[in-house]
Amino acid sequence: MSDQVRVRFAPSPTGYLHVGGARTALFNWLYARHTGGVFVLRIEDTDKARNTDAAMQAIFDGMKWLGLDWDEGPEKGGAHGPYFQSQREDVYLRYFETLKAAGHLYEDGGAWRFKFSRKKIIMDDLVCGRVEVDMSNAETHPDMTIRRPDGGWIFHFVNVVDDIEMRITHVIRGDDHLSNTPKHLQLFEALGVQPPRYGHIPLILNPDGSKMSKRDTGSAVGWYEENGFVADAVVNFLCLLGWNPKTEQEVMPVAEIVRIFDVANINRKAAVFDLAKCEWMNQQYIIKMPVEQLAPLVEPILAKAGISTTRETLIPVLGLVRERLKRLTDATAWVDYFFVEQVVFDPEAVEKAMRKPGAMDRLRALDIAYQLLPAWNAADLEATLKATATAAGVKVGEFVHPARVAATGRAVGASLYHTLEVLGRDRVLARFARAMTEFAG
Ligand code: GLU
Predict the structure, then answer these.
(1) Which neighbouring-strand residues pair with 73?
(2) Is the dihedral of CA 350, 351, 353, 354 positive or negative?
(3) Nearest-angstrom CA–CA distance, 366 and 381
(4) Which of 214, 304, 356, 395 is catalytic?
(5) Model pLDDT for residues 121-158, shown as the tens digit of each residue
(6) For a Cys-Cys bond, which of 112, 177, 395, 410 suits 147, CB 3.0-4.6 Å?
(7) Which residues contact residue 417 at a Cβ distance below 8 angstroms, ignoring those fewer than 6 apart?
């Protein structure tokens, strides 16, 4: 037997792909990639009443979006398929007959139950350490059903059979399954197979200590894509939900995480989910991303908001505003004034900057100075504005604010001089002229 690591993600397609499931998939994927092993995707769809195609699709889409490619599984195939439990009836029947023939099963009201050995089970969990469960008392640990009267299979049985058949070496899963593991170990023993190593990863809690549920914002992976998150940032964020990189550095490219990931560094205590931290992480990725890479991510968002751009004009604009973006979707509000014919004035900004006594006179003085500028670049725009302010004997801000509101409609934004440079002389002077007319007197 080769000692190549084989791990799997085994979701039941009953709801959307949630952060907890995505993190389980991610830790398995990281472990496979770190060890040069194999990452299997297996769909645990035995519960026909609760499975939906939409949920299955959400699993595939979510994993692809996060970049969690699987080596064996749906759409990929592999030597141990099929990878849908609903298509593995013959395999389960074979194992069922084996257990029955060996006297491990008995019928009970049409269902089939597995007889537990009445003893203490010791687990040596990769995350939780040594855990003992005493199964000697049939009252507290009754024999488990593995097949329903209607012939349907129970999770514990098919989960173990598939882990055997798919040669799984390590099972990394949520610690809601920790209490199932002694049962699973008993099945392995009855089948005479060496069990995989188990590692149960901690729960994800909300900052208030409550258990994260599907109603919480950010619980579904699809939400991140829809709300302007960069996939690599979400992956980086999910890694830190329960895994300790043993360094202060938190922003880490996934390749680096693959290099240093180890199951031994998964925390035992619950992870706290903090959406603000995810946004911070997202911002770090946006800031570092080359604008050429950022532009195609932002374009569809702007298009949806009715802002039409070209790659050529968008790139310098993104260079100016990207430090302000916590989400890609924030771009709409930060770039719109670069692409509209007429800026929309924020009434509050107008009140503060344009209605101030003398504001329009100062804008006129700046307008004249700018008209005379031989070159149109940020450095000259800045020097000219400052010289104009000095000549007028007022603070620079007295010129900056009306100029910004005239050019962008807003009180805040990226560096004014760079903004004016990117807007270009014609547009800036036209906007100054319009503002002077609109706010005169
Ligand atoms: N289908 C199970 C679940 O979604 C899989 C558990 C396991 O990973 O063994 O929780």
Answers:
(1) 77
(2) positive
(3) 10
(4) 214
(5) 999 999 999 999 999 999 999 999 999 999 999 999 99
(6) 112
(7) 378, 379, 381, 382, 385
**Backbone dihedral angles phi then psi of residue 203, each to the nearest 5 degrees:** -60, 160
Residue 214 annotated in active site: yes
Cα–Cα distance, 322 to 337 (Å, whole number): 15
DSSP string, 324-345: G-SSGGGHHHHHHHHH-SSPPP
In tens, the pLDDT along 44-58 reads 999 888 889 999 999
pTM: 0.91
Q: Which residue, by CA, sits nearest to atom 4 of ligand 1?
A: 11
How high is the pLDDT of residue 2?
A: 65
Helix (H, G, I), strand (E, B) or coil at 140: coil
Express each pLDDT in 74-103 by its tens digit: 999 999 999 999 999 999 999 999 999 999
What are the structural domains of the chain? 290-337 (1.10.8), 347-438 (1.10.10.350)
Ligand 1 pocket at CB < 6 A: 10-12, 44, 159, 171, 173, 177
Using the mean position of ligand 1's atoms as its centre, give its distance from the Cα of residue 155 in Å.
8
Distance 25 CA to ligand 1 centre (A): 11
Pocket test for ligand 1, best of 45, 173, 179 (most atoms within 8 A of CB): 173
| Nearest-angstrom CA–CA distance, 411 and 352 | 9
**How many Å lie between the centroid of ligand 1 and the Cα of residue 156?**
9
Interatomic CA distance for residues 360 and 441, integer angstroms: 8
Q: Which amino acid is at 319?
A: G
Whole-number Å distance, alpha carbon 415 to ligand 1 midpoint, is: 51
Half-sphere exposure of 176 (CA within 13 A, CB side): 7
Angle, helices 155-165 vs 181-191, to 10°: value is 50
Closest by CA position to 203, among listed 212, 190, 191, 195: 212
Question: What residue type is 336 in one-letter code?
Answer: D
